Amino acid sequence: MLDFTINSPDSLSKLIKEKEIVSWQELVTYVKNIPYGRNSNRTDSRLVLTENKGTCSSKHALLKRIADIHGAKNIELFTGIYKMNSTNTPKIGNILLENGLDYIPEAHCYLRYKGETIDATSDTSDFERIKKDIIIERKIQPDQVANFKEQFHQNFIKTWIISERLNFSYSELWEIREECIYNLST
Q1: Pair type for strands 116-118 and 75-84
Q2: What angle do CA 87, 92, 96 make, to 5 degrees?
Q3: What is the chain's Cα-based Rg?
Q4: Sequence spans of domains, the chain
Q5: Is pLDDT larger for residue 1 or for residue 154?
Q6: Cα–Cα distance between 31 and 59 in angstroms, integer?
Q7: Cβ 49 vs Cβ 20: under 8 Å
Q8: Best label site of 39, 46, 87, 93, fewest CB within 10 Å?
C-alpha cells in the first residue's frame, strides 16, 4: 500500500498540514469523507479543502497533485466513461427509468497505483461497482479534469446518441444526466 509523509513546503501541502493531515493515507481517508459537490472553480484543487466538498474530478486531481509534488511514482489519474445505471449508482433513483434509458454514459475520475484503482469520491465509493461497466478510459493530468474531461464526455455522448439511434437531442440527454448528478449530491 502506498504511503508517504506530506512534507513539501508548497502551498497545497501546507494547506493539508494545517488540517493536521501528515500522510498520503490520511489524506485519502480525509478526501473520501469530504461531501460530494461541485467546487466554485473546477481547476483549483485547494477548493476541495477550503470549500469542504468536491467531485470525483476535483478530489482525485488534488490527490494526484500531492502525489506528484512528493515524487510518488506510478500514481496515474484516469477519466473513464461508464454505463451509469441504477445498479452501479443507486442514488440516481428512477431518472433513467422515467426517461426510458437503461443507462447513461458518465465520466468518472479515479487513480491507479500499480494496477490497483483508488476511488476517493466518497466513503462509500467502490470502483468494483462500475468496473465491468467501463466503456473507455484515458489517462489524464490534474489540469485536464475540467475542460478535457468535459469535452471527452460530451463528445462520447454525442456519438452514443447517434450510434444507439436515440430519440433525444444532446441537450435533452445532458439535462437527464444533470438530474442524475444532482441526485448524487443531495
Answers
A1: unpaired
A2: 80
A3: 17
A4: 1-186
A5: 154
A6: 7
A7: no
A8: 87
The sheet carrying 75-84 orders its strands as 116-118, 104-113, 75-84, 134-140
Name residue, grid cell 475540467: 146
Cβ neighbors of 4 (< 8 A, separation 6 or more) are: 23, 24, 70, 72
Architecture of domain 1-186: Roll (3.10)
- Whether the CB-CB separation of 49 and 35 falls below 8 Å is answered with no
Q: How many CA atoms lie within 13 A of 174 on its CB side?
A: 12
Each residue's pLDDT tens digit, 22-51? 999 999 999 999 998 889 998 899 999 999
Residue 168, Cβ neighbours under 10 Å: how many?
17
Provide the mean pLDDT of the chain.
Answer: 94
Check pLDDT > 80 for residue 62. Answer: yes
Burial of 29-58, coded b for 16+ CB within 10 Å and e otherwise, reads: ebbbebebeebeebeebbbbbebebbbbbb
